[in-house]
Q: What sequence folds into this?
């Protein structure tokens, strides 16, 4: 198995731990991750999609075209990238006139969108292709006793008619992936609700966007979760940096809760050290409970 | 032209006309606003925005700050009993607002980073250090590492007139003003 | 052979996108056509009278009406020609409304197509053969499928009219959804008060006109309902 | 016995629960031994009966919408989120006991949610179910009667109180103190043991959270899950909403595409009892026409077999959905029962030897037509 | 009170018991008082009969919730024991014991005095709109004689005035005309136009009917409807059929497809120049025609008298009486109809309207004018009219001001959805007033309740979606037939849920808007149902009647209308 690892912005430029842990975990399962040379910002679906849909689609098409040149499907670790590339791919595959339009723009740089590959989220690959059974076999340090508040994020699931990940109201995929590590995915209020960062709200209205995060943190704490778990670099940033911003910039009171990306959690269970997984590079320090595993 | 038609015409070429036409059949049931996570925390009122659009209140819709409080979480989109594609309609209305000069400086700034570096969130020295510690390449194999690829992005932005949209100054490689 | 052609305006339904006068004029040029007329509503009494008079006076033996779908008015015109002794199946209808005026936006092409449709109908009419309507006896019994309030009600009505009625219900008892309700809007009758008398009426129906079948499975419903022939041909 | 007032007044054995019918326990016969009339018969099997019928009225009714198809309302997760039909049963009990109890407690805050599974393209039901507004008004009124200090809220999109006396009924509910809240709730969740309904009040333009002890979902009507099977059998098509399709909404609202088969009640589309019964009698009227006449007239537009050419290959018999062709042993050819034949033409198209043609639509007639059109 | 009495209290499956001692004290020796679960149920009735026979009870009292529904079901008891139980209606709030004791005082024994009579195999249908036509056709098709009495000179009713029908947009003439033609030609239907029923007596199975036939002044059988008399008539008045939008002559044919197709002379406006008589080739004009009374007997009676449109003058703030840019929906329908006075061209002050505002619930859901009920059709007909006008004025804008959109019928929600898709604006809010702006255009004041903001809309045409009201002479008709009238002034059914087509008089049924507003589909389904009810006793051949089933003749003339059509549509 081989995938073109589309990095996007936040994974490589803010949370290299996500990149490192993903590469390590995939490597352990024998999945090769190749580069997408010269890839850019995906660009973000809610922000660039809101500025100019045509530019958004063109840059998205460009990124897919570069991956196509590597002859394999795209894998990524950010719901924003997934949102853009999966939707752009969907729109382009459905509408030949859009392909024509995009290819005319890309021609100058020498790229061409063909529509031959798929865009997959890393958890989708872990769940559907690696499989829970195989993952279980690789668990060396079961995370027994760890309560995890799963945050799916929005663009991984929705719009469900395009994403095809099943119910957007009752998703199960990540919970199953968490439970297989020995940790326990706990239910909490507004589990499927947004982190607040998307749609350009974080950029434009930081304080308002952090109110979402505040709710998230409080709701996760209310059920005694040991950490928030995400599958999106942008949600990760919002919830991790967001907590320090909330207490620092905006003077809100809250109990900090550590934030983990799924491959980081899985990496711990597979026996990688916290340092290897970049867990100690987060703004909110890991609790001892997690680090002791 | 009616504002509704303008919205449909704007979003139609990319997102599909039928997709956009759903705007017309809103029955004002309020399911969108009721479930809107942003609406609980901020002043955005999705149903009212749709109604205002239907009532041709173009200026009010385009100039409102609330328009930019949608996090594109698609909750309304998923639940709408009439399958109105609310989130995509919102994005399209923002496109129009952008052309009318309602883009916030912070947004234009973020957009300018993409033209300058290829990334909305470019790398910094601290992260370069972290990358090295983790055994990753210091500079990621993106436009950061491939300067030709960055040129490609810049040509693309010129072609779609994205540079004009955000008032980008190629001389200073920064926003005008 | 004498064919009469009648072109209907259907108010403006046809006339708006078809030049009906031109169609009628054109029809006159077709083989065997001895008369062609247009009128605002061919299906109306005076419209039908136009046809009837011509059948009688000109001795037409084929009639073509260019109007709406035969689904709508074929029976009307068949009846009309029949009153004047013509065999009903020597009538042919050209649909220049659903198939033509309603789907054309310009008058010119609409008119052309109407002409083509009329010419085809005339060609077919020339080859039509008289047919006779068949008659079949009806088994004096009714089957009601479903024993909810609608089925109960229908079965009682049918049995009251004096016909053997079979009432088929899959569940062990009649009653359906209403049996599970408490009160009924808008006058807050008890559901039981509305339903039980009707169920009692079924159970105590004076004549031997009802039979209840507890068909538990659809297959049973199918088998019972399938009992054929439903009607027997009368010789 | 399903109800105390069941008709027929007989007991029935549920073989899924009866020990005798369950594997390995096959010798219980307590009911049989106890029955003084000796009416219990374990040997009963399915039987087939052939009936001669002159007319058929289909009155198969509706299925209740499955509320778990709206996951955001969490009907499948919380036991104090129930459907209108379930609440109806609670009310029946309450009539006897004088109390409504949900999990052993009397609910103080009750919220009714309208249009669950109706007016909802999202679940494929665009239509209105016609009865939910009013049955909710009824249930809300009854709650207020039984628990006078309760807070009862009805969340709606449009109140469709269209029938006779309905508007007064709606007003009466309001007079009793039922609150009408215009806004379609987006979701239900649990907070601190209490249900919370998130809904915009569209008349105030504000999203709100209302807490509740009980949420009643006004589930709509859907067509019977096996409507297609019965429809295929009786040749009654379904319309886009999956209910049976009438021949014409105005010219034949109880007729179907099949002669002699009529539809009544909610199998044709949601309706209240009065409209159901009016339509049921209407269906009987249509059935009475042939029954009273004793005769039906059948169009001679049927297929005919040219016995000279027919080889008796049975191909037509296989294709015909009306079972019109049969084999004439004596002559060795196929014959068409012209009473049953609908004149659809499938047999003619199938016949390998070209022995079958259609009255009134003979090849030469059609070719004459085509020639004119193409010239 | 000396008879041995049995008192049975039905608890309708609710369980519970009654303080029987109190009641027993009031009763003679040997009486019994019992609680019961479902008295209407067959087994309990058998127990009741057993009790009566074993205990020699002389009379029985049954207290139950729905006494009006139940009267007929104790017949079996009556057949077996020779008398019927007295029914006492109790309500949940009642003190049952008190109520029963109070009722015990004036108990009369009820003897089942039913006799079986033969049923005259014919039916009287009053009113020949689509509903009366359909019922007549159904009964006629079943092989029975129908007398179809219509007050106006032609059949077809309101439907003949419509352009298209919702939600399928079938053209009304395409549906209505064949029905009219079929009715006119049916061998079993005797059509009596310009006629009114003036007296009815008898009972189910055998009603004696008197019909007053007004002069048409034209021989219906001779007249061919050629229209030459109309062309030559010098007297011009406003056409009722077109709601005054177009003219007609003093001798006229209401509309081109009228059935029967015969001219009628309006004596009120006739100049008596006798020009018509002179020009008529068929010599069909009869100036000397007089009223005649026709008498016949029928087995059942069907009332299908339909509705009238709400008189919009009663809502003066909407300016219907003041401004010619404010019209009612039926007038718009005539303007749209290709058969209408403008041949389907919609011109307001010589120009096609571009901005049209529909005002919903005019005269419906309005206690202020005494009509609390919903008219059921206005939401959908306004939606439909947007489509009709759009066909002719493609760039017109539509706003429908509503309270609740009641798109409840089959295909209605889909149609509502479709018209929204085509750009019709639905504005939630009931119009408060309409006035003329400075530029001559109409201004509509309304709150947009979803924006919580009062707004003023400009319109060059305001259409009032007038509701349906009971015909003005419904009380007289009800009086003549001994029927009840509901609070909404429409005829009352025997029971709103389970006997929606029956009246309180056995053998008299009703259908369509006579019983309350409904759309064409519901009306047509219901009228077939009513036709079934009327046909069932005929088909069976015999009917049982009791003394209470007799229609008592009301001694006063009930003739109310002139021969010409007097449409009070305002």
A:
């Amino acid at each position: 198995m081989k995938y073109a690892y589309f990095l996007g912005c936040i994974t490589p430029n803010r949370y290299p731990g996500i990149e490192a842990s993903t590469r390590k975990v995939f490597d352990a399962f024998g999945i090769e991750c190749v580069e997408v040379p010269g890839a850019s910002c995906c660009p973000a679906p809610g922000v660039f999609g809101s500025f100019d849909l045509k530019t958004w689609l063109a840059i998205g098409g460009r990124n897919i075209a570069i991956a196509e040149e590597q002859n394999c499907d795209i894998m990524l670790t950010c719901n924003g990238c997934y949102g853009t590339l999966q939707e752009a791919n969907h729109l382009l595959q459905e509408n030949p006139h859009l392909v024509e339009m995009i290819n005319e723009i890309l021609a100058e740089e020498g790229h061409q969108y063909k529509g031959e590959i798929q865009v997959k989220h890393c958890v989708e690959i872990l769940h559907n292709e690696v499989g829970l059974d195989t993952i279980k076999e690789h668990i060396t340090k079961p995370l027994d006793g760890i309560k995890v508040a799963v945050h799916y994020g929005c663009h991984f699931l929705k719009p469900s008619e395009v994403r095809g990940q099943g119910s957007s109201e009752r998703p199960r995929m990540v919970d199953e992936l968490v439970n297989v590590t020995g940790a326990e995915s706990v239910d909490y209020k507004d589990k499927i609700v947004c982190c607040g960062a998307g749609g350009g709200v974080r950029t434009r209205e930081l304080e308002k966007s952090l109110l979402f995060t505040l709710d998230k943190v409080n709701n996760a704490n209310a059920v005694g979760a040991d950490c928030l778990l995400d599958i999106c670099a942008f949600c990760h940033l919002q919830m991790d940096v967001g907590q320090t911003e909330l207490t620092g910039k905006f003077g809100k009171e809250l109990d900090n809760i550590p934030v983990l990306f799924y491959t980081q959690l899985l990496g711990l269970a597979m026996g990688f050290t916290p340092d290897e997984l970049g867990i100690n590079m987060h703004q909110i320090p890991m609790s001892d409970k997690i680090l002791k595993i | 032209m009616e504002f509704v038609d303008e919205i449909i015409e704007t979003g139609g070429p990319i997102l599909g006309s039928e997709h956009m036409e759903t705007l017309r059949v809103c029955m004002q049931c309020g399911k969108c606003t009721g479930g809107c996570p942003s609406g609980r925390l901020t002043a955005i009122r999705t149903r009212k925005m749709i109604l205002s659009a239907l009532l041709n209140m173009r200026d009010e819709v385009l100039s409102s700050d609330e328009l930019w409080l949608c996090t594109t979480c698609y909750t309304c989109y998923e639940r709408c009993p009439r399958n109105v594609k609310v989130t995509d309609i919102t994005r399209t209305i923002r496109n129009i607002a952008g052309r009318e000069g309602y883009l916030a400086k912070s947004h234009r700034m973020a957009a300018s980073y993409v033209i300058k570096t290829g990334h909305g969130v470019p790398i910094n020295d601290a992260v370069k250090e972290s990358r090295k510690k983790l055994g990753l390449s210091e500079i990621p194999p993106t436009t950061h590492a491939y300067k030709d690829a960055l040129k490609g992005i810049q040509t693309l932005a010129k072609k779609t007139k994205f540079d004009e949209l955000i008032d980008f100054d190629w001389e200073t490689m920064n926003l005008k003003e | 052979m004498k064919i009469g052609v009648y072109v209907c305006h259907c108010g403006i339904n046809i006339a708006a996108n078809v030049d009906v006068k031109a169609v009628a004029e054109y029809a006159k040029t077709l083989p065997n056509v001895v008369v062609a007329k247009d009128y605002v509503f061919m299906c109306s009494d005076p419209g039908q009278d136009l046809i009837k008079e011509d059948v009688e006076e000109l001795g037409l033996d084929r009639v073509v009406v260019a109007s709406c779908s035969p689904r709508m008015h074929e029976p009307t015109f068949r009846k009309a020609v029949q009153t004047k002794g013509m065999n009903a199946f020597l009538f042919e209808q050209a649909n220049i409304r659903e198939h033509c005026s309603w789907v054309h936006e310009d008058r010119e092409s609409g008119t052309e197509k109407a002409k083509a449709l009329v010419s085809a109908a005339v060609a077919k009419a020339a080859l039509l053969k008289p047919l006779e309507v068949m008659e079949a006896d009806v088994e004096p019994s009714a089957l009601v499928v479903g024993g909810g309030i609608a089925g109960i009600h229908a079965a009682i009505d049918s049995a009251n009219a004096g016909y053997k009625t079979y009432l088929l219900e899959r569940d062990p008892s009649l009653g359906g959804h209403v049996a599970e309700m408490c009160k009924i809007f808008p006058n807050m009758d008890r559901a039981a008060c509305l339903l039980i008398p009707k169920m009692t009426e079924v159970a105590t129906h004076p004549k031997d006109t009802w039979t209840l079948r507890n068909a538990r499975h659809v297959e049973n419903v199918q088998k019972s309902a399938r009992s054929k022939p439903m009607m027997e041909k009368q010789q | 016995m399903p109800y105390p007032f069941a008709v027929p007044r007989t007991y029935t054995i549920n073989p899924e629960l009866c020990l005798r019918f369950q594997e390995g326990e096959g010798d219980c016969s307590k009911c049989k031994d106890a029955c003084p009339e000796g009416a219990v018969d374990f040997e009963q099997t399915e039987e087939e009966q052939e009936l001669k019928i002159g007319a058929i009225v289909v009155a198969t009714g509706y299925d209740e919408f499955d509320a778990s198809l709206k996951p955001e309302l969490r009907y499948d997760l919380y036991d104090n989120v129930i459907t209108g039909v379930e609440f109806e049963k609670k009310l029946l009990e309450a009539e006897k006991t004088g109390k409504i109890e949900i999990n052993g407690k009397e609910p103080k805050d009750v919220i009714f949610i309208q249009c669950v599974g109706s007016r909802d393209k999202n679940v494929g039901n665009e239509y209105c179910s016609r009865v939910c507004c009013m049955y909710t008004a009824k249930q809300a009124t009854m709650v207020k009667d039984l628990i006078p200090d309760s807070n009862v809220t009805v969340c709606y999109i449009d109140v469709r109180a269209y029938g006779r006396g309905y508007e007064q009924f709606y007003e009466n509910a309001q007079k009793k103190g039922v609150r009408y809240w215009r806004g379609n709730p987006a979701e239900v969740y649990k907070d601190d043991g209490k249900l919370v309904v998130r809904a915009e009040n569209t008349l105030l333009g504000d999203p709100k959270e209302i807490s509740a002890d009980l949420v009643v979902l006004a589930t709509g009507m859907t067509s019977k899950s096996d409507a297609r099977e019965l429809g295929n059998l009786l040749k009654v098509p379904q319309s886009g909403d999956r209910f049976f399709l009438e021949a014409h909404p105005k010219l034949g609202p109880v007729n179907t595409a099949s002669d002699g088969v009529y539809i009544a009640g909610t199998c044709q589309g949601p309706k209240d009892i009065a409209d159901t019964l009016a339509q049921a009698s209407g269906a009987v009227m249509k059935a009475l026409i042939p029954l009273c006449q004793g005769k039906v007239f059948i169009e001679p537009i049927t297929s005919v077999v040219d016995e000279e050419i027919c080889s008796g290959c049975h191909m037509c018999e296989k294709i015909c959905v009306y079972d019109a062709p049969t084999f004439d042993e004596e002559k060795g050819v196929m014959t068409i029962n012209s009473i049953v034949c609908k004149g659809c033409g499938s047999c003619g198209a199938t016949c390998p030897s070209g022995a079958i043609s259609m009255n009134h639509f003979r090849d030469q007639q059609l070719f004459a037509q085509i020639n004119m059109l193409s010239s | 009170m000396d008879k041995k009495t049995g008192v049975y209290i039905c608890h309708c499956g609710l369980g519970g018991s009654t303080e029987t001692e109190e009641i027993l004290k009031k009763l003679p020796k040997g009486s019994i008082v019992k609680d019961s679960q479902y008295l209407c149920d067959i087994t309990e009735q058998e127990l009741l009969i057993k009790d009566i026979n074993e205990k020699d009870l002389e009379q029985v009292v049954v207290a139950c919730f729905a006494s009006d529904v139940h009267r007929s079901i104790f017949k079996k008891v009556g057949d077996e024991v020779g008398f019927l139980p007295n029914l006492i209606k109790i309500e949940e709030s009642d003190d049952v014991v008190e109520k029963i004791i109070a009722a015990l005082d004036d108990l009369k024994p009820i003897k089942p005095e039913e006799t079986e009579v033969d049923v005259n195999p014919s039916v009287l249908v009053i009113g020949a709109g689509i509903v009366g036509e359909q019922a007549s056709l159904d009964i006629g098709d079943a092989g029975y004689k129908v007398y179809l009495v219509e007050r106006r000179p032609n059949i077809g009713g309101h439907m003949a005035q419509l352009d298209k029908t919702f939600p399928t947009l079938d053209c009304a003439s395409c549906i209505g005309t064949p029905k009219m033609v079929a009715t006119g030609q049916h061998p079993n239907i005797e059509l009596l136009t310009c006629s009114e029923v003036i007296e009815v007596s008898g009972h189910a199975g055998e009603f004696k009917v008197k019909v007053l036939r007004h002069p048409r002044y034209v021989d219906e059988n001779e007249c061919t409807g050629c229209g030459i008399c109309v062309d030559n008539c010098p007297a011009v008045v406003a056409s009722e059929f077109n709601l005054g939008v177009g003219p007609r002559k003093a001798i006229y044919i209401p509309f081109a497809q009228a059935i029967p197709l015969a001219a009628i002379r309006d004596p009120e406006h006739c100049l008596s120049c006798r020009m018509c008589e002179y020009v008529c080739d068929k010599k069909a004009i009869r100036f000397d025609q007089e009223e005649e009374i026709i008498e016949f007997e029928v087995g059942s009676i069907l009332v299908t008298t339909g509705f009238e449109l709400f008189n919009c003058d009663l809502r003066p703030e909407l300016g219907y009486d003041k401004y010619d840019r404010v019209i009612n929906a039926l007038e718009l329908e005539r303007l749209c109809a290709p058969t209408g006075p403008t041949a389907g061209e919609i011109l307001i002050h010589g120009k096609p309207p571009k901005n049209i505002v529909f005002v919903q619930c005019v005269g419906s859901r309005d206690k202020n004018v005494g009509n609390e009920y919903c008219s059921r059709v206005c939401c959908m007909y306004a939606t439909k009219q947007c489509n009709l006008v759009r066909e002719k004025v493609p760039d017109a804008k539509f706003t429908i001001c509503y309270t609740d959109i009641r798109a409840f019928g089959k295909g209605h929600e889909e149609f509502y959805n479709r018209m929204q898709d085509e750009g019709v604006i639905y504005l939630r809010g009931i119009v408060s007033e309409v006035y003329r702006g400075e530029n001559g255009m109409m201004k509509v004041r309304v709150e947009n309740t979803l924006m919580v903001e009062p707004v003023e809309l400009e319109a060059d045409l305001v259409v009032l979606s007038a509701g349906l009201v009971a015909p003005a002479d419904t009380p007289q008709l009800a009086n003549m037939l001994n029927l009840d009238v509901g609070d909404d002034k429409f005829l009352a059914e025997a029971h709103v849920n389970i006997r929606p087509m029956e009246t309180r008089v056995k053998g008299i049924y009703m259908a369509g808007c006579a019983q309350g507003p409904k759309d064409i589909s519901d009306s047509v389904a219901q009228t077939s149902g009513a036709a079934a009810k009327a046909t069932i006793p005929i088909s069976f051949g015999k009917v049982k009647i009791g003394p209470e089933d007799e229609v008592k003749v009301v001694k006063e003339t009930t003739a109310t209308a002139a021969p010409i059509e007097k449409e009070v549509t305002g």
Residues 520-540 of chain E form the longest helix (21 residues). Chain E has 14 helices and 30 strands. Chain E touches chain D through 72 residues (CB under 8 Å).
